[in-house]
Design brief:
Helix content is 64%, strand content 0%. The chain has seven helices and no strands.
């Protein structure tokens, strides 16, 4: 494989391959889990696949969330895992996915910070007994995206 510097840097093409591989492995794991039947998957992972249950679940969740999406293929695996994690609420994930589709870049640390910001805003709103408006109102987005988001 030849490396070339592009918009994603020297590893941009490799990130796409990694994302595609994670999605495909996730699909195959889901199929294998179904074929093995209830209660046999964890033992199979440990014996045959030599990965942890958490790693297998990460792959499977990425496939379930992004299996048909092309916009996420240039994301780092850590970002894929963070976005597909059960702890990432839709109110955080969906606006980030929209911004990624518009060309914004995010890291796993960005997503963790946005999840914390969302949790804080939700707690404050709950404490004030005020219903929140638009789901994106809490999201601190890059300046370049703010005008696009408010014009929608």
């Amino acid at each position: 494989m030849r490396y070339r510097k592009d918009e994603g840097g020297f590893t941009g093409g490799l990130e796409r391959v990694a994302a595609e591989s994670i999605i495909e492995i996730g699909r195959e794991l889901i199929e294998q889990k179904a074929a093995l039947g209830h209660g046999n998957f964890l033992a199979w992972i440990e014996a045959e696949f030599e990965m942890t249950d958490q790693t297998a679940r990460n792959f499977m969740r990425v496939h379930e969330r992004f299996g048909k999406s092309k916009t996420i293929l240039d994301l780092q695996p850590s970002v894929l895992y963070a976005l597909s994690a059960p702890s990432t609420p839709a109110e955080v994930r969906e606006p980030i996915e929209e911004l990624i589709a518009d060309g914004e870049k995010f890291t796993a640390a960005d997503i963790a910070a946005l999840k914390a910001e969302y949790a804080k805003a939700k707690a404050e709103l709950s404490a004030q007994s005020v219903t929140h408006g638009h789901a994106l109102a809490w999201l601190p987005v890059p300046r370049s995206s703010r005008s696009r988001m408010h014009s929608r």
